[in-house]
Design a protein that fits this description.
transmembrane, transmembrane helix, membrane, mainly alpha, 84% helix, MENTAL domain-containing protein, 9 helices, 3 domains
């Protein structure tokens, strides 16, 4: 009986370790994939909400062209998802061009902050005009709720971009700090050091 109990206990421990490993891998994947996942959400979510608010119509290229030709800042909503798409495209493009030092203090953080703040200002200025117009008051509660969700999602995703960029910046700075400590320890001990990459990182950190 004791043998079977020990075997069951060992099996339970192995299952727990496997689950812990899988959960850790999933969390790590989400952390490192956060910029890409956020860009996908920022591209699709506002567009999907706008399309749902246009029921029974849907958001197609023809519909977008028609909405743009009749664009009015005080009434049109097509610019909200378009801003999200443009914001996401520029941010992911800059992110793909940056390496460790540039992710820590460089164009990625600056670009993300600038675009997010600009879109926050634009959407915040637009919201009072949209929700105070007479045409909006005549719409049903469901449609108005979707329009509110459109603005909230755009604002929330803009803030999320800044948070993700800041966390990535902190993570890369910690990595550079570790590299710097390792390099200085090696150089202080007068041991040959041939890694050009680490020397470059150390030089860039000292120049900042």
């Amino acid at each position: 009986m004791g043998f079977f109990k020990d075997e069951k206990a060992n099996k339970a421990v192995r299952i727990a370790k496997t689950l812990f490993f899988l959960i850790s891998m999933a969390i790590s994947f989400l952390i490192f994939s956060a910029p890409l996942l956020l860009v996908i959400a920022d591209t699709l979510l506002p567009s999907a909400i706008l399309s749902a608010s246009m029921h029974p119509n849907s958001l197609t290229l023809q519909t977008i062209s028609s909405l743009l030709s009749q664009y009015d800042f005080r009434r049109s909503l097509i610019d909200v998802p378009l801003i999200s798409v443009i914001r996401s495209a520029v941010i992911i493009f800059v992110y793909s061009l940056c390496d460790g030092p540039k992710l820590s203090r460089g164009p990625y953080m600056a670009t993300t902050a600038m675009l997010s703040v600009a879109s926050l200002i634009f959407v915040s200025m637009k919201a009072p005009f949209v929700f105070s117009s007479a045409g909006r008051l005549e719409k049903g509660a469901y449609c108005r709720a979707l329009e509110v969700a459109l603005f909230v999602s755009s604002l929330g995703l803009a803030v999320a971009h800044v948070i993700v960029a800041y966390r990535i910046s902190c993570r890369e700075r910690r990595k550079l700090l570790v590299y710097r400590i390792d390099i200085e320890a090696v150089l202080g001990g007068k041991i040959g050091f041939s890694s050009n990459r680490y020397q470059k990182l150390l030089l860039e950190e000292r120049l900042k």
